[in-house]
Write a structure and sequence with these properties.
mainly alpha
Length: 210
């Protein structure tokens, strides 16, 4: 019974923390307000979670795991959020048919875990980790597709950072529009956005011949 009560209390904390993060964001979220919303003292709250970061991680980890599973399934385990990719072996031609599924699966994930996905994308330091991972992935793909001159390292890395930032910021933007798009609209917006992003590279890609 004590364990059950502890799990119930933990769930109350997580629900209070979700509302706090969605209202105030990561930097301004207050453990004191979360404790008050969960109807406990701050000291008792820290018995469950040692820090705000640990609390946020408890909220976002399930969504991050689902997102990683989505990416792995979509790319036949060639790409994972949990590893640094040194090679991918997918051409633009092979990625293009996957756009519809990516948009659909991402939409379904946002429907299943709407608060967790918004917090992951908008209100956690994990979004910075995802962004950095995306830069590394795009650098690998850019080399495999021979998109940019290899003898200009500074420009190459700058371009990869710019493209990855625009891609991730676009996805974050659509998740920030709480309630403005129904699932069908969200799926279509993501499908078009991913397609347009991929189209930018098609004329330059030499690895798109397979």
């Amino acid at each position: 019974m004590a364990q059950v009560l502890k799990e119930i209390q933990r769930d109350k904390i997580l629900e209070a923390a979700k509302q706090e993060l969605l209202q105030y964001g990561y930097r301004d979220a207050s453990m004191r307000r979360i404790a008050a919303q969960a109807k406990m003292t701050v000291g008792n709250l820290y018995r469950y979670f040692e820090s705000k970061d640990q609390l946020i991680q408890a909220i976002t980890s399930p969504a991050l795991a689902q997102l990683d599973q989505l990416v792995r399934s979509l790319t036949d385990d060639r790409i994972s959020l949990n590893q640094t990719n040194t090679s991918v072996g997918l051409s633009i031609g092979e990625l293009r048919p996957k756009i519809d599924r990516l948009a659909r699966d991402l939409t379904e994930l946002s429907v299943r875990m709407p608060q967790e996905m918004r917090i992951l994308m908008l209100h956690s330091d994990l979004s910075e980790q995802i962004s950095s991972w995306l830069v590394s992935l795009l650098e690998v793909l850019a080399k495999e597709w021979a998109l940019f001159p290899f003898n200009r390292d500074a420009e190459f890395h700058a371009l990869c950072r710019m493209f990855s930032a625009s891609l991730f910021q676009g996805v974050r933007e659509v998740f920030s529009q709480d309630g403005e798009l129904d699932p069908d609209q969200l799926c279509e917006v993501l499908r078009i956005y991913f397609g347009l992003f991929l189209n930018m590279f098609s004329p330059a890609a030499k690895g798109d011949q397979r």
